[in-house]
Specification:
Helix content: 25-40%
Largest sheet: 9 strands, mixed
Strand order of the largest sheet: 5-4-6-7-3-8-9-10-11
Number of domains: 1
Structural class: alpha/beta
CATH topology: Rossmann fold
Length: 230
C-alpha cells in the first residue's frame, strides 16, 4: 500500500507514494521546504479521511497556520478538523496531556502510545533537533524514539535539520526512507531540489530533481534533474 504525499510530482519519484506504515526522515537546511512538505502530507491525509497528528516543538498551531497562509492547499481546514490533532511540546499543557498515555518510558513511550490508542494514520514530528531539549542523552534517546515509533501502524515523518546529505545520523539508518531537501545559491539565484537518499521497497532515482514553491505549496519536477535546471 502506498500513501500519497500531497506534494505534486513527489509521488512519481516514489512510484506512487510512500510505502505505508513506515518511518521516514525528511532532512535539509532551514527554508528548504521540509515543513511545507509535512503540512501537505498531513493535509492530504485528512482529505482522504485519515487521522493525523502534527507534533511541533517550537511553534503553536496558530503560528504554523500563519506560516502556511500563503498557500492554498487547505492546511488550516485540515489541521483544525476533527481528524487532526496538534501538539506543541514546548507547552506545559501539551506535555501534561501526554501523561494519560503512561508514566513509564518518558516522552518516547507516551507519544507512541498516543498514536496507538488514537489509531493515528499519519504523524509528523517537527523537528528531531528540538527533541534533545527533553532528554538527558539525546543520541540514544533519538534512537529509542525512532525504534519505538516504527512499532506503530502509522506512516511517520521525522523532520531533521541536517544540512549535509552525506552526514548520516542514527535516525537515518533506522528509517525506512530518507528524503533530502536542498536549497542553495548559484549563478542563477536560489536553486531548490529534492533528493531521495533511501527508500526501502522502492527502486529510486537518487539524483536531485528540481523543486519549486507556488500558491499550491511545494512541487517536485521529476523530469527536471538538477543539471538540467537553469
Amino acid at each position: 500500500m502506498r500513501v500519497a504525499t500531497g506534494c505534486r510530482g513527489m509521488d512519481r519519484l516514489l512510484q506512487g507514494g510512500l510505502p505505508a506504515r513506515r518511518l521516514y526522515v525528511i532532512s535539509g537546511p532551514p527554508g528548504s521546504g521540509k515543513t511545507t512538505f509535512a503540512a501537505q502530507f498531513i493535509t492530504e491525509g485528512v482529505r482522504n479521511d485519515e487521522t493525523a497528528l502534527y507534533i511541533k516543538m517550537h511553534e503553536t498551531r496558530a503560528e504554523l497556520v500563519q506560516d502556511m497562509a500563503s498557500f492554498d492547499f487547505g492546511f488550516e481546514q485540515a489541521i483544525t478538523s476533527n481528524n487532526a490533532r496538534f501538539l506543541n511540546l514546548t507547552s506545559e499543557k501539551a506535555r501534561m496531556s501526554l501523561t494519560k498515555y503512561g508514566t513509564e518510558g518518558g516522552l518516547t513511550n507516551r507519544v507512541a502510545a498516543m498514536i496507538e490508542e488514537m489509531d493515528i494514520d499519519r504523524v509528523v514530528i517537527d523537528s528531531t533537533m528540538l527533541l534533545t531539549h527533553f532528554v538527558d542523552d539525546p543520541e540514544n534517546a533519538l534512537t529509542e524514539f525512532a525504534t519505538r515509533l516504527k512499532q506503530t501502524d502509522a506512516t511517520l515523518l521525522l523532520v531533521s535539520e541536517m544540512t549535509d546529505p552525506s552526514a548520516y545520523a542514527a535516525e537515518h539508518y533506522l528509517a525506512h526512507g530518507v528524503i533530502f531537501f536542498h536549497n542553495f545559491m548559484d549563478a542563477g539565484g536560489m536553486t531548490r531540489a529534492v533528493q531521495i537518499i533511501k527508500m526501502r521497497g522502492t527502486a529510486i532515482d537518487c539524483d536531485m530533481h528540481a523543486a519549486s514553491f507556488s500558491s499550491g505549496g511545494l512541487a517536485v519536477h521529476p523530469d527536471q534533474k538538477l543539471d538540467e535546471v537553469g
